[in-house]
Amino acid sequence: MKKSITLEITKRKPQEEYLHQLTVLKIIKLLLIWSVILYHTPNAFSQTLSNFNIELDKKIALELNTQYHFIGIEIFDNTSKKTVYERNSEKLFTPASLQKYITLFNGIESLNDSIASIKIQEIGDTIIFSGLGDPTFLHPEFGNHPAFEYLKTTSKKLFFNHKNISQNHFGNGWAWDDYTYSTSKEICDFPIYANSIIINNKKSSIQKFKLDSLVMLGNKIVRSEQSNTFQATEQKNHHIQEVPFKWSPELACSLLYDTLKKPVHISKLDSFPLSDSTSKIIHSQPKNRVLSIMMKHSDNYIAEQVMLQCAILNSYNSYPKYINDLSKSISKKLITPMRMVDASGLSRYNLNSPANFIKIISLLEKEIGQKELMDILAQGGQEGTLEDYYPNSQPYIFAKTGTLSNNFNIAGYLVTKSGTTLTFCLMNNHFIDSTSNYKKKVEEVLIWIRNNYPSSTVETHTF
Asked: Which domains does the chain show, CATH number per domain?
């Protein structure tokens, strides 16, 4: 009996194991099937988003006519933390003034709370000062000039030390014949009066500069390429124009003499005569105010001077070398390779991608927060480069534009009607249409995105 019972148990055990294994396999199979169904069955939001992307493709083709030029886009949903649309987002484009995003990031990381204006050293009855690239020194947009007040109130002899950092007056790849336009002011270590004069109805804002006898040059005022000789048409109507002057250390000292009403000499020293421990820095304007003007108005002059100041304060003796080293450093934080040769974006040698600008915006968010970044950027319908675009009682677009002839780019934030904040970058290179017309077409695309982007709170399927 014991034997038969033992045999019976032995026979049943494999059968039980088989049934158990079969049951487990069935359960695993059902789980796998269920997971595949869950993975491949889109929820309501993803279905709507898919339709949105299809319609966006059609809208871009209709408005931007991409047959003959290049376009790159990336749209990032800040709620889902996902890229929801992209097209050529890792291709390289000419960024134009989107380059200022890098200058903004570097300025926030590298500079103190206020702009450094001049570095001074007192030696007996003498003050030697050198410029630190401060773009606001006697700039007409700023009413407070601490460095100027310091030089004005001292009774000591003033010597300007110019040999501080080597740089060309223009950046690499700038158009040589733009020297007469306010967008191409010269770069220098000690700018003064924003390195330009304002001519108002044939009168110069700086008396030292006189207009030559009037000649017919079209409806504008021009300057001779290698001198500060200005010529203008005979204007019948009230006319205001800003024209850069040709900077030199001698001119800077002369202009300062006219304003201070006391001599300013040029120092013969190659550098500061004593160590930094015996010198001090006079600061000027709040950094964030200067950077906000740079971004809102796409100010090339401020961008280059801010970057030059970063180079000087980091003890570089070459501005181009600083930009090259900075480019290598920032590239390590980005998605694709890039090329950076200036701070303003005037150069067509610059190359960057939509994916990189999305990344740079995210890096800026980590530094100062989304709200503060929105405040720094131009806003639709408000003061700055977006003043005539995207009008609304409540701004919904906060962005930086980048414009060169045949190129228009825009990147920043777009708040949709569904309440979602999108980070976006749209880059357009080599179109033939006029820039003003093309800006309107881009506006139509972005307004369409605002009106049609689906809400991420759409109810999803549940199982």
From this structure: 51-93+353-452 (3.40.710.10), 106-312 (no CATH)
How many residues in the chain? Answer: 463
Q: Where are the alpha helices (DSSP H) in 314-353?
A: 319-331
CB 346 within 8 A of CB 183: yes
Map residue 437 onto helix, strand or coil. helix
Q: How far apart are CA 332 and CA 61, in angstroms?
A: 34
Residue 428 and residue 449: Cα distance in Å, rounded? 17
Q: Is 401 helix (H, G, I), strand (E, B) or coil?
A: strand
Q: What does pTM read for this prediction?
A: 0.86
Burial 253-275 (b: 16+ CB within 10 A, else e): bebbeebeeeebeebeeeebeee
Task: Please tell me the distance from the alpha carbon of residue 286 to that of residue 295, in angstroms, as a whole number.
Answer: 15
The enclosing H or E element of 24 equals: helix 2-40
Per-residue pLDDT reduced to its tens digit, 175-203: 988 888 899 999 999 999 999 988 776 66
Query: What distance in Å separates the CA atoms of residue 23 and residue 5, rounded to the nearest whole number?
Result: 27
Instruction: Give per-residue pLDDT as tens, 283-341.
Output: 999 999 999 999 999 999 999 999 999 999 999 999 999 999 999 999 999 999 999 99
Alpha helix (H) residue ranges in 65-136: 100-110
Name the helix (H) or strand (E) containing 252: helix 249-260
